[in-house]
Write a structure and sequence with these properties.
43% of the residues lie in helices and 29% in strands. It has 184 residues and is of the alpha+beta class. Helix 2 packs antiparallel against helix 3 (40-55). 38% of the residues are buried.
């Protein structure tokens, strides 16, 4: 297991210092993913699958905030190649890291996230023992914050590229797509 993690870390670590051309290549690959999706589930699966190729994602989830009930609902979870749907996890909005990121409206990246802020359910949802990098992407559509995309990788610094302006734009397009499905 340690050898597998080390191989993953080396693979992704070599990709962390993305030059501008690499960033554009990743962006274009992800952008193509968004063109022909027909549901939230397919959008989540396609996006996670593409991101996995670049960032060795071992855990991901999609959450939606319910202001009336003050909780984050998590309808889609991906873990080490398997997707779980149909089981909805609810996380209290108080002391929720995902809700805090959503309210701040900025992508949150944490390396070596052993003791992240947030409640115990959130930590179990977001992290595995071997997680070395995580990202929480707020989803805001038409000025209304409504959810997050959450990613984790065993590779240190895997999501540092998410601070690039290209990814700000890409995730605004992703948020618009998810938002459209939420309105339907």
């Amino acid at each position: 297991m340690t050898d597998q993690i080390e191989t993953t870390v080396n693979t992704v670590s070599s990709r962390v210092s993305f030059d501008v051309d690499s960033q554009k290549s990743i962006y274009q690959s992800l952008e193509r993913t968004l063109d022909s999706v027909e549901s939230q589930k397919n959008l989540f699966l396609n996006l996670t699958s593409r991101l996995d190729k670049f960032f060795a994602i071992h855990k991901a989830s999609y959450s939606v905030y319910s202001p009336e009930k003050n909780y984050m609902r998590v309808p889609l979870v991906y873990q080490q190649g398997e997707t779980r749907t149909g089981v909805v996890i609810s996380i209290a909005g108080d002391k929720s890291l995902m809700r805090t990121v959503l309210e701040n409206g900025e992508i949150y990246v944490e390396d070596f996230p052993r003791q992240i802020a947030g409640n115990i359910v959130e930590r179990k949802l977001l992290l595995l023992e071997e997680t070395s990098s995580m990202a929480i992407v707020p989803l805001i559509d038409k000025g209304v914050p409504y959810g997050t995309l959450n990613f984790a990788s065993a590779a240190p610094f895997a999501f540092s590229i998410f601070s690039s302006q290209l990814f700000d734009y890409l995730f605004s397009v992703v948020a618009e797509k998810f938002g459209r499905f939420n309105r339907e």
